[in-house]
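Exam revision sheet. Question 4 asks you to relate a sequence to its structure. Input first:
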Amino acid sequence: MNPDNDQTHPAFSKTPVLSNHRITLRGLELSESAAIIDISVYNGVFAANATEAAHILEQINADIAKGESLHWGIFLNETNEIAGTCGYYRGFAENSGEIGYILKDSHRGKGLMTEAVQLLVDFGFKTLKLDKIIAYTDPSNSASVAVLQRVGFIEVQSTDGDRKFILPGKGLN
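Answer key, structure tokens:
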């Protein structure tokens, strides 16, 4: 198999903890499923209850175990409250990573996601040694577009209905 086209990255035995002065990104426990019902989504399907949120988390954990994704809860350092989730999803083909993220409504507009995405980007380039990071967002999601632009992502042409953004690593075009 050509390592440049590998869909996986070495699996971590434990989700790495990433943090700054306001937030900590850490792995989620199944016991936290009830706290993430409104932000639990897998393949575009949202959880309707704690059981479905736990099932989604189990699916994500299976992907992590295969080295196909990494998933974090976004926790406020001051209160340890979960504000959202984020991560790398859908494999690592051609040494690139696709990020995704979601915040609870009560935490939007506070700059938390910009900080979380910056932590993801730093981890992706420094630890995972990715060549580029990709993100897709709904065309009407101006808040997500603003997050990506603040972190330095550049919009590129997309062949589907979503807007596509890329952040190339250093030395790449």
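Marking note for examiners. The first strand starts at residue 18 and ends at 19.
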